[in-house]
Design brief:
Layout lengths: L1 H25 L6 H8 L3 H7 L3 H24 L5 H11 L7 H8 L4 H28 L8 H16 L7 H18 L9 H5 L1
């Protein structure tokens, strides 16, 4: 029984890797289920045994990406970097790389709004404990002075998603938002002015 389960998990991972590569090279919209099936050399019924739809495949592909990003973030957390460098590194590690932008674009279209919200929620669940640990480390070094760190991190991440999802790049209004946002983070974490200035490079 266990061997069968392991084989199924391996097969599912293989299909996800094939879908991942096709989504990256062709884009999600331009990749069909038939192409995934042809690349995997399986029957259509086998594909639908593992995934009920192409959208479900995309969701699992993104979860796989988040898992890999989380591994990188944990490596940064355990490193000897400064608190500010750890915050920066963890946030950057949770971003899709250049090759994965076509997958990212797929969840940003209006038709995938529910999936977009689910992915954002998943990222918040994953990144919150990591950033909480870094902020606690910063408190010991008198960089931050606050209580209820986990809840403060969640608020910051929720604001980040809602504020910058609109993607108002190169606008004067966005620059004002960034200044206010950084000021808000510093106040929420009890940090001196300028402590979170590095965040400008993340947003711009």
């Amino acid at each position: 029984m266990e061997v069968r389960i392991i084989k199924k998990e391996i097969r599912k991972k293989e299909l996800l890797n094939i879908a991942y590569k096709l989504f990256m090279t062709k884009g999600y919209e331009n990749t069909s289920v038939d192409e995934i099936i042809a690349e995997a050399k399986i029957a259509k019924g086998t594909y639908y045994y593992y995934f009920e739809s192409k959208e479900a495949t995309l969701e699992k592909v993104i979860e796989m990406m988040i898992e890999e990003e989380c591994k990188k973030a944990n490596e940064i957390l355990q490193s000897n970097l400064s608190v500010q460098e750890k915050i920066l590194g963890i946030i950057i590690s949770m971003r899709p790389n250049t090759e994965e932008l076509k997958i990212q674009e797929a969840i940003n279209i209006p038709e995938n709004i529910v999936m977009h919200q689910k992915i954002n929620k998943k990222i918040i669940e994953v990144i919150t404990p990591l950033l909480t640990e870094v902020i606690e480390e910063g408190k010991k070094q008198n960089i931050f002075d606050c209580d209820n760190v986990k809840e403060r991190i969640e608020i910051i991440l929720i604001i980040t998603n809602n504020l910058f999802d609109a993607n108002e790049q190169n606008s004067r209004k966005l620059n004002i938002y960034i200044e206010i946002f950084i000021d808000l983070i510093e106040k929420l974490l009890g940090a001196k002015k300028g402590t979170i200035d590095f965040a400008k490079n993340l947003i711009n």
